[in-house]
Amino acid sequence: MEIVTWDMGFKLLLLMFAGIILGGLGTAYGAMVGSLVIGVVAQMSTLWFPVDLQYAWALLVLILVLLVRPQGILGRAERVG
């Protein structure tokens, strides 16, 4: 039995944010694809690395994809200014 704490949903919220940003803001299909990628990476990383690091690998994928494609996987490039 777990105890209810004020920060229970923080890790889940962090992964949801990463999935939406990875998929591309403004597109529902992008959010689904990004969340799928984040979830698969987080779960598959536990095969080779400690479970405590599963969120770190998911966020590393987020950083690497955003370095290559800043608008996300399915996002459109928009010019500002």
Q: Report the β-strand fraction as a percent range.
A: under 5%
In quaternary terms, these chains amount to single chain
Helix content range of the residues, please? 55-70%
Shape: globular
**Intertermini distance:** 53 Å
Tell me how many strands there are: 0
Q: Could you state the order of secondary-structure elements as H and E?
A: HHH
The structure class reads mainly alpha
Low-confidence stretches: none
Radius of gyration of CA atoms, rounded to a whole number: 14 Å
Mean pLDDT: 85
Query: Counting H and I runs of at least 4 residues, what is the number of helices?
Result: 3
Task: Describe the protein in words.
57% of the residues lie in helices and 0% in strands. α2 crosses α3. By secondary structure, the chain is mainly α. The model has no long low-confidence stretch (mean pLDDT 85). The protein has helices spanning 10-23, 28-44, 54-68. The protein starts with 9 loop residues before the first helix and ends in a 13-residue tail after the last helix. The chain is globular, with a radius of gyration of 14 Å.
